[in-house]
Amino acid sequence: MPKLVWDAAGERYYETGTTRGVLYPQDDKGVYSNGVVWNGLTAVSENPSGADATDMYADDIKYASLRAAETFGCTIEAYTYPDEFALCDGSAELAPGVMIGQQARRAFGFCYRTKVSNDAAMDAYKLHLIYGATASPSARSYATMNESPDAITFSWEVTTTPVNVAGFKPTASLVVDSRTADPEKLAALEAILYGSDTEEARFPLPDEVYTIMKNADQAEG
Question: What is the mean pLDDT of residues 103-123?
Answer without folding.
Answer: 90
